[in-house]
Amino acid sequence: MLAFILRRLLQALVVMLTVAFIAFMLFQYVGDPVTSLLGQDATQEQREQLRRDLGIDKPFPVQFARFAANAAQGEFGLSLRQGRKVSTLIAERFPATLELALAAAVIALGLGLPLGVYAALRRGRFGAQLVMTLSLLGVSLPTFLIGILLILVFSVTLQWLPSFGRGEVVTFGSWSTGLLTRDGWQHLLLPALTLSVFQLALIMRLVRAEMLEVLRSDYIRFARARGLRDGSIHFGHALRNTLVPVITITGLQLGSLIAFAIITETVFQWPGMGFLFIQAVQFADVPVMAAYLCLIALIFVAVNLAVDLLYFAVDPRLRVERPLGGH
Fold first, then answer.
1. Any idea where the domains of the chain sit in the sequence?
2. Do 129 and 218 contact (CB within 8 A), yes or no?
3. Residue 194 has what pLDDT?
4. What pLDDT was estimated at residue 323?
């Protein structure tokens, strides 16, 4: 177990160093931070002084080592567009993105799992075929189109839900949440549903495929031969074994929900990290772009590590010690 964790931590470190290097290269080849901060009218002395203050007059390896050390502490300098610390901007926007991603994950898992089981157990019937058709639409339609359609139906036509913003939030220190207000829930529902559609369809199709595969296995036939009831077979044996790959996919999808919430946040003007990143790209705000890239990589690495450990705990085959030289 300890060796398994150490291997995963070493892999995570290598990934983070690689991402940090890619993020650092943005500083080298995307615009000039001195010009962005001082403007075109600055004197040469002012430019040289700022270069010394930023440390960009040092050799490349020294600059990267300094960047990696600061990034490990969550420091990425000042935003070139807003003139504020990037860590402060990220801290302000992260709660909104995390809230949106978790709400979307709950919707996707809460609907995808039972619908996938239903489609497997009722295969060939009209209801199951309708569910699979809808899932095909879910994985085919682009996110921005889904968001626009939901706005058209629920905000413009029916006028039931707001179409942009986060609504009323409650602040606890540096953390803010809209989950404690009715207005916050109303603003969250449409973007969370939009972000969850693809993941919901993916989980549903995965559960159906895994469930059908498990139901064809020998031990399920043996359980039927023993006279066990269908409910015990389906939910006590088949579903439990189906959940092993679903745990892996669902865990990894949580990271992708945070990373790819950019489109949803842009459509709904949701004040999260994705919307901040889009603004940073428009203004070539390199420190914000680099911070976003490193944070998303860290989330993916952390989620992947958690999923690996959970998979290790769920699947007993992984806990069997391998012999030396074994594969």
1. 94-272
2. no
3. 92
4. 47
Residue-level pLDDT at 226 = 65
pLDDT for the residue numbered 30: 62
All residue ranges of the chain with pLDDT < 50 are: 322-327
List, in sequence order, every residue forming a beta bridge with 175; answer none if it has no partner: 172
3-state SS of the chain? Answer: CHHHHHHHHHHHHHHHHHHHHHHHHHHHHCCCHHHHHHCCCCCHHHHHHHHHHHCCCCCHHHHHHHHHHHHHCCCCCECCCCCCEHHHHHHHHHHHHHHHHHHHHHHHHHHHHHHHHHHHHCCCCHHHHHHHHHHHHHHHCCHHHHHHHHHHHHHHHCCCCCCCCCCCCEEECCEEECCCCHHHHHHHHHHHHHHHHHHHHHHHHHHHHHHHHHHCCHHHHHHHHCCCCHHHHHHHHHHHHHHHHHHHHHHHHHHHHHHCCHHHHHHCCCCCHHHHHHHHHHCCCHHHHHHHHHHHHHHHHHHHHHHHHHHHHHCHHHHCCCCCCCC
Rounded CA-CA distance 95/65 in Å is 30
User: In this structure, are residues 97 and 258 in contact, taking their beta carbons and an 8 Å threshold?
Assistant: yes
Q: What per-residue confidence (pLDDT) applies to 325?
A: 45
Is CATH 1.10.3720.10 correct for 94-272? yes
Structure tokens at 125: 């019937």
Instruction: Return the pLDDT at 326.
Output: 45
Query: What is the spatial distance between Cα 208 and Cα 112, in angstroms, rounded to a whole number?
Result: 10
Both structure tokens of 64: 């990267």
Q: What is the pLDDT of residue 324?
A: 43
